[in-house]
Amino acid sequence: MVIVFGGTGFIGLYTIEALVKAGYEVIGTGRNARLGTLVEQLGAKYLELDLTKEEDFKKLPTEGVEAVILLAGLLPAHVTADLVENENAADYFEVNVIGAIHVLEYCRKNGIRKVVGSCSYSDVSGAWGTGRVITEDEPRNFKFTGDHAVYVISKNACNDVMQYYNEQHGLQCSWFRFPPVYGVGPHGTIKVDGKSYKSGIATFIDNAESGKDIELWGDPHISRDIIYVKDVADAYVKAIRSDKALGLYNMTSGVGLDLETQAQTVIDVFGKDKGSRIVYRPEKKNNTPSYLYSMEKAERDFGFVPQYKDFRKMMEDYKEELESGRWQMLVERKETY
Predict the structure, then answer these.
(1) How do the pLDDT tens digits run along the chain, 337 residues long?
(2) Residue 316 lies inside a defined structural domain of this protein
(3) Residue 300: left (phi > 0), alpha (psi -120 to 50), or beta?
(4) How many domains does the chain have?
(5) What is the pTM of this model?
(6) 59: domain range?
(7) In b/e form, how buried is each residue of 210-240, taking b as 16+ CB within 10 angstroms?
(8) What is the β-pairing status of strands 26-30 and 45-48?
(9) DSSP 135-164
(10) How far apart are CA 209 and CA 317, in angstroms?
(11) Which of 10, 168, 196, 309 is deepest in the core (most CB within 10 A)?
């Protein structure tokens, strides 16, 4: 049996689907009963659980659990303006650190060794734009200002606590460092400093589908490393099957994707014959960072190789998933974690 904490989230649901297809009995936890029905439709059991409430863990089984996947957390993209204005450092730590400790204690007390979590890719943002491939050995280097700062600090603390449980209690904790994860989900609109904005990929797709031009600001060849949600789900399955998975892993495609290629591919897949064109606006400022992460460690330790490195293949599958309508409840979700 595998328990997915945060099973009603974007990555959580895709991971549950991958686990069920791999033959696992799965329990998915969350705080959204409506999405809990989607968990059950995927063939898993749903349990309502709040990470911050230690008593909620009494609902979980104490035997027969092979591994735990920790995806629940408080993210800047879901934080409302009132929390930003009133300072929310404690909220991040309550969920992302104390909540994680509750999970780890549940595992320690019940003999569950394998735990796989997540990490902020911004913990090494100081290395972005340097032109070098970022490995897991890159020292932490990030800004202590902005809406992501406390989130990064809390995730770093969470990962340090996981390492403590590895060394102190013999657990086998590992965690994935995600860049933007593409796929059908609730992130068409994200929050920055508590204010809602349409994401870049959602804007590209909407414009392509309606035949509107796609503007590329600044350098059209700014390159980023992204990953598809189905690859992430596959990586979680492979990690819990491995006795070597331990510590930090980059979890990206390992391939740089520039804005021009991204925009043209979206036009080809979502806006074929609809008249959408790329319009270059070099005079406009673009704050998009450029980065590329190494994927050698994940391949070496648990044989993970992304299947959606090719962006066209990714977008074709994205379109198919979107048109299926099976994730509509997820797209509309309004949940923190």
Answers:
(1) 999 999 999 999 999 999 999 999 999 999 999 999 999 999 999 999 999 999 999 999 999 999 999 999 998 866 555 555 667 899 999 999 999 999 999 999 999 999 999 999 999 999 999 999 999 999 999 999 988 899 999 999 999 999 999 999 999 999 999 998 999 887 555 545 555 556 788 899 999 999 999 999 999 999 999 999 999 999 999 999 999 999 999 999 999 999 999 999 999 999 988 999 999 999 999 888 899 999 999 999 999 999 999 999 999 999 999 999 888 888 876 544 4
(2) no
(3) alpha
(4) 1
(5) 0.93
(6) 2-185+226-255+290-311
(7) eebebebbbebebbbbbbbbbbbbbbbbbbb
(8) parallel
(9) -TTSPP---SSSTTHHHHHHHHHHHHHHHH
(10) 16
(11) 10
Tell me which H or E stretch contains 318: helix 311-324
Q: Are 5 and 49 in contact (CB under 8 A)?
A: yes
In this structure, is residue 262 part of a structural domain?
no
Look at the block and give the residue holding tokens 């650190």: 97
Q: Is residue 76 part of a domain?
A: yes
DSSP 8-state symbol, 95: I
Residue 1: how many CB atoms within 10 A of its CB? 16
Structural domain contains residue 201: no
